[in-house]
Write a structure and sequence with these properties.
- This protein is mainly β.
- Helices cover about 5% and strands about 55% of the residues.
- A 4-stranded antiparallel β-sheet has the order 1-22-21-20, with no helix packed on it. It has a 4-stranded antiparallel β-sheet with strand order 2-3-4-5, with no helix packed on it. A 4-stranded antiparallel β-sheet has the order 6-7-8-9, with no helix packed on it.
- The chain is globular, with a radius of gyration of 17 Å.
- The model has no long low-confidence stretch (mean pLDDT about 95).
C-alpha cells in the first residue's frame, strides 16, 4: 500500500473496550463488547449519550454474562448491532431507529449462526463474528479466525429475514502475520466496490480469552470477485476493532478507528487513519 499516517484524534471518557463504530455528519455511534449501551458521540460539542441495547444495561458487564456486541452497521432507516455468536448468549441482533436511537426489535440469530458454522465447517468454539456490512443486496458477516483453527472468512448472506429465510456464500482468507501471529478480522466497511477491513493479531487461540496484543492491519477485498487485494500493517501495539469511512477523495482516503483496550477502563481512543492513493 501507499504511505499512511495514524493519529489519535481524541479519547472518549465513558466507553470501554470499544468494538465497533459508524460515522456520519460529525456523529459517532459506538458499541463496546462488554457494554449494554449504544453510545452516540457528537464530535462538535463532545457530548455523549447512552441508548439501551438490552434490559438493565451496564457499561461493564462480566465476561460470562455479556452479550458481546462486536459489529454495527446501518441502512437508511435502521442501525443494527450484532453479538459475536462466540457463546450461546451472544446470538442477538438489536435493531434501532436511526433517528431516535430507540430499539425497535431484538432478533435471535441462533439459526443463522448455526447455519454459518455448519456451512463453513467452523467449530462452535472457533466461531466469532466481529464485523457486519450491510448493502441493499447482501449482508457481509466477517468471521474472525482467532480460534484454534484460524479460519478468517466472509459470509455473504442474501436474506428476506435473518432469522430463517436466507442463503449464503462463504469465502475464506489467509491474512498476513504480525510478529509471527496470523491477523484476524475485527471490522469492515464498504467503500465503492471494496470491502475495507481491519484485522488484529492477538497471542491467543481462543475466541473467549484475550491474549497479548501484537498489532493491527488494514486491507481491502474486491467486492465483485471477493478477492483479497492489499494489506498494510498500521500498528504493532494497538488492537483496532472499529472501522468507519471518514472521507474519500482522489488523493487520499481517511478512516476513523476505535481501539479495544481489553480492560475495564471506561476510556476509548478514536484514531484517524489517512491512506494516500
Amino acid at each position: 500500500m501507499n504511505p499512511f499516517t495514524l493519529e489519535l484524534l481524541f479519547n472518549i471518557i465513558g466507553i470501554g473496550s470499544a468494538s465497533g463504530l459508524t460515522y456520519k455528519d460529525n456523529t459517532l455511534l459506538l458499541i463496546g463488547d462488554n457494554s449494554g449501551f449504544l453510545y452516540e458521540y457528537q464530535m462538535d460539542d463532545q457530548s455523549l449519550n447512552h441508548h439501551a441495547l438490552i434490559e438493565h444495561p451496564k457499561a461493564n458487564i462480566p465476561k460470562k454474562e455479556k452479550p458481546d456486541f462486536e459489529a454495527i452497521t446501518f441502512d437508511d432507516q435502521n442501525v443494527y448491532v450484532f453479538g459475536s455468536g462466540s457463546t450461546e448468549n451472544r446470538n442477538k441482533m438489536v435493531t434501532l431507529d436511526r433517528q431516535t436511537k430507540k430499539t425497535t426489535a431484538t432478533t435471535d440469530l441462533t439459526n443463522l449462526y448455526l447455519s454459518m458454522q455448519s456451512f463453513a465447517q467452523i467449530a462452535p468454539e472457533d466461531f466469532n463474528i466481529e464485523g457486519v456490512v450491510y448493502t441493499p443486496d447482501s449482508w457481509y458477516f466477517f468471521q474472525r479466525g482467532n480460534g484454534a483453527n484460524g479460519k478468517n472468512g466472509i459470509f455473504s448472506v442474501n436474506a428476506k429475514n435473518l432469522e430463517g429465510d436466507f442463503t449464503m456464500v462463504y469465502n475464506e482468507y489467509e491474512l498476513p502475520k504480525i510478529k509471527g501471529v496470523q491477523a484476524s478480522f475485527t471490522d469492515a466497511v464498504i467503500v465503492g466496490d471494496a470491502l475495507w477491513f481491519l484485522a488484529a493479531a492477538e497471542n491467543t487461540q481462543s475466541t473467549y480469552l484475550d491474549g497479548d496484543i501484537l498489532g493491527s492491519l488494514i486491507g481491502y477485498i474486491d467486492l465483485k470477485k471477493m478477492k483479497l487485494r492489499k494489506t498494510q500493517i498500521i500498528s504493532e501495539k494497538n488492537k483496532f476493532e472499529g472501522l468507519a469511512l471518514f472521507s474519500d477523495s482522489k488523493k487520499q482516503i481517511q478512516f476513523l478507528l476505535c481501539e479495544d483496550n481489553d480492560t475495564d477502563r471506561l476510556e476509548s481512543g478514536i484514531y484517524k487513519l489517512t491512506l494516500q492513493k
